[in-house]
Amino acid sequence: MLTWNLFHGRCVPAAGHPLKREFAAALAGWDWDVALLQEVPSWWPEARCASQREATQLRRRPERRVVHAVRLAGGQWVGNLHAHRPRSGRRRG
């Protein structure tokens, strides 16, 4: 299983050109059965996507937690939990 936050297709420092080709080459070069990708740019087409997807917000306070899951061809579900905690010193509202 591979998990990767693509940072909306950007890098730091900025590359100065689109990185779709580089990201695709990296994915093609790794051995994985399931790839859970976060922050994929909306203009990148879904080349290999599960047919059934779900997203559920598990909680909002004191931190936001959302799980995104896909159903694989064999019926198994694979999920990716995204948890966000406010930075220390920030007021919770």
Radius of gyration: 16 Å
What count of structural domains? 2
- Please state the oligomeric state of the protein chains shown: single chain
Instruction: Quote the average pLDDT.
Output: 77
How many strands, which pairing sense, and closed or not: the largest β-sheet? 3 strands, antiparallel
Helix content range: 10-25%
Low-confidence stretches: none
Strand order of the largest sheet: 3-4-5
Strand composition percent: 25-35%
Sheet/helix structural class: mainly beta
**What is the terminal-to-terminal distance?**
36 Å
Strands, total number: 5
The SSE order reads: EHEEEE
Shape: flat
Helix tally equals 1
Chart the SSEs and their pairings.
Layout: E1 2-5, H1 20-29, E2 35-38, E3 52-59, E4 64-71, E5 77-84
Structural features, described:
It is a single chain. This protein has 1 helix and 5 strands, in the order E-H-E-E-E-E. The protein is mostly beta strands. A hairpin with a 5-residue loop joins strand 4 (64-71) and strand 5.
Task: Supply database-style keywords.
mainly beta; 3-stranded antiparallel sheet; 93 residues; 1 helix; two-stranded parallel sheet
Brief overview:
The chain has 93 residues and is mainly β. The protein is built from 1 helix and 5 strands; from the N terminus they run E-H-E-E-E-E.
